[in-house]
Write a structure and sequence with these properties.
Layout: H1 8-22, H2 29-49, E1 63-64, H3 66-69, E2 71-78, H4 80-101, E3 108-113, E4 116-120, H5 127-137, E5 143-149, E6 152-157, H6 159-184, E7 190-194, E8 200-206, H7 211-219, E9 224-233, H8 236-241, E10 251-257, E11 264-270, E12 275-276, E13 280-287, E14 294-300, H9 302-314, E15 320-324, E16 327-330, E17 341-345, H10 350-362, E18 369-377, H11 379-408, H12 411-433, E19 436-437, H13 439-468, H14 473-505, H15 508-542
Parallel strand pairs: 1-19
Antiparallel strand pairs: 2-8, 2-18, 3-4, 4-6, 5-6, 7-8, 9-11, 9-12, 9-15, 10-11, 13-14, 14-17, 15-16
């Protein structure tokens, strides 16, 4: 016997199918058509979800949520001010470059805060030229320019532009996280916006066992830039003293690792990068030919390769700082012109080099991420939850089966078959659309069983009433189903509307409940009315009964 047939549910289903086939030729033509249609539909639903969950090497047809499968649940906050600062810094660099190109002399151009920058000390004779320049490059409706004093300009982002940058930053962060999670090989991850503030991301990774590795890959910003080094010193103070006590306008100081572990080196680098992570085409972990240590080898896209070739050709003999997440990883001397490839060396382990290469391939995050919530669900807890949920459902089914048989006698078998068909349709529908089953979803399935029993009780009581009024068995069944149809639609419609609102406005667990409730209600209409009515008519078609065991 195949392993799947050891399951009593499969044996019961096979027996029912055999009985249906054996009795096929005893049906009227109308019932034959309905038997084929209903049976084919139920078999298709059963095949869609079997096997429902993973068994050994055989994958399950129903996706299990984080609370059932185990894994990691994170709520991250995107520090959108990082993207605003980067936008303003680019604007400052543009203003500097354009003013220098046109020969406009000014004292300084620097960022004021995350949404504005100032240009100060413009020579009086060129104030009008600077005003025209800023208006050309920083136009409404994105920017607003003011002139608070002669020769001083303040350029500020508008509120609408700020909102657009924040929204696009969160969306770009989600896309980057999706690419990184794909590098980890996680099946059925959930990465979506979370909360009402618009700057939070929900990340759920079912089945992840190495939580620390997942957190490292997810959170690493991986902002890569290569910049020409102007000077370096063992301390920030020494570097400032060598340059008049302040950082030049077009420069910045970046810390990096020195030759000796624990002793940092400070580099004065150009603010404008030769290339950035956006210019990368690919990155992979490799071995340094000189030290035999791990390194990250990268190649550039055509645009990046052209810039890299031009700048390295101009700066042969100078040092090039490779800056990752605001820290100089290495600063090799440019020996010759480089076209489209390079390498990053440092004190990496093989695993760190591999993880960094994955992150670089996925792309840099547009902003820093902060952990707001972290929850780890063990796989054993997930199995216990499944076992408890299935046990509760089976116990509920068993209790209801005993009640229906005791109260409605042989007609109770009709209700049990209808409930079973309800569950088969529900699970088949979930497998077909790829819906994820969660612990609240199991609660929705149990509630669906209760609603199915309620519908059968409504039908059976109506049939009893018709029999008490002197109707024949056939007329009582016909009238019972016909007169209760509108009531079934009304009660299910209100519950379906409630489930739709829960799905639309609820969070993850609530949505899981809403999905199973919605699909269970739709399945119940079909099973409790059409399948149940077919069974009654099938029995009556085989014999002319004067009484009904109900």
């Amino acid at each position: 016997m195949p392993p799947a047939l050891h399951n009593p549910f499969v044996l019961w289903f096979a027996l029912t199918l055999a009985l249906a086939v054996a009795s096929y030729f005893g049906m009227r033509r109308e019932l034959r058509v309905r038997a084929v249609l209903y049976g084919s539909f139920l078999i298709a639903c059963f095949v869609a979800f079997w096997p429902p969950y993973e068994k050994g090497d055989q994958p399950g047809r129903i996706k299990l949520g984080l609370d059932l499968r185990g894994g990691i649940h994170l709520v991250l906050q995107v520090v959108t001010d990082d993207a605003l600062n980067a936008t303003v810094d680019d604007a400052v660099q543009t203003a500097r470059d354009q003013a220098t190109r046109k020969g406009i002399v000014f004292a300084s151009a620097q960022r004021i805060d995350a949404t504005s920058f100032a240009v100060e000390g413009v020579e009086p004779a060129r104030v009008k030229d600077m005003r025209d320049l800023l208006r050309d490059f920083f136009r409404a409706p994105d920017w607003d320019m003011r002139e608070p004093a002669e020769g001083r300009f303040v350029v500020k982002m508008t509120d609408g532009y700020v909102r657009r940058i924040k929204d696009s930053t969160v969306k770009e962060a989600i896309k980057t996280l999706e690419r990184r999670v794909n590098q980890l090989g996680v099946a059925d991850p959930v990465i979506t916006e979370h909360g009402s503030r618009g700057d939070q991301i929900l990340v759920q990774l079912p089945g992840v066992t190495d939580v620390e590795q997942a957190k490292r890959v997810i959170k690493t910003t991986a902002q890569l830039s290569l910049k020409i080094v102007e000077d370096s010193a063992p301390s920030r103070e020494t570097l400032l003293q060598a340059h008049g006590g302040k950082v030049p306008d077009n420069m910045e100081i970046v810390e990096g690792a020195g030759e000796t572990a624990g002793q940092p080196v400070y580099y004065l680098v150009r603010r404008e990068a030769v290339i950035t992570g956006r210019d990368l085409k690919n990155a992979r972990a490799g071995i340094d030919g000189q030290t035999n240590g791990p390194e990250i080898q990268f190649t550039l896209n055509p645009q990046g390769a052209e810039k890299f070739k031009r700048e390295t050709g101009r700066n042969i003999g100078r040092r090039l700082a490779i800056i990752l997440d605001g820290r100089v990883e290495s600063a090799p001397v440019i020996q010759s012109q480089i076209a489209d490839n390079g390498r990053i060396t440092g004190r990496y382990t093989a695993q760190e080099a591999d993880e960094l290469a994955k992150v670089l391939r996925a792309g840099a995050l547009p902003a820093t991420l902060k952990y707001l919530q972290e929850l780890t669900v063990g796989a054993s807890l997930g199995r216990d939850s499944i076992r408890a949920g299935v046990t509760a459902a089976l116990m509920g089914m068993a209790f209801l089966a005993i009640f229906m048989l005791a109260y409605y006698h042989l007609s109770g078998l009709n209700a049990i078959v209808a409930l079973t068909a309800n569950l088969v349709i529900l699970l088949g529908g979930m497998a077909y659309i790829g819906s994820t089953l969660t612990l609240p979803g199991i609660a929705g399935i149990i509630l669906t069983i209760g609603v199915g029993v309620d519908t059968n009780v409504l039908i059976f009581e109506r049939i009893r009433e018709e029999l008490r009024n002197g109707k024949t068995v056939r007329a009582a069944i016909h009238n019972g189903f016909e007169r209760v149809w509108i009531t079934i639609l009304d009660t299910h419609a209100t519950a379906l509307i409630a489930a739709a609102f829960l799905f639309q406005f609820g969070t993850g667990p609530v949505k899981g409940f809403a999905v199973t409730l919605f699909m269970g209600l739709v399945a119940n209409i079909f099973a409790s009315y059409f399948v149940s009515r077919f069974l009654f008519e099938w029995v009556l078609g085989r014999r002319q009964a004067a009484t009904l065991s109900i």
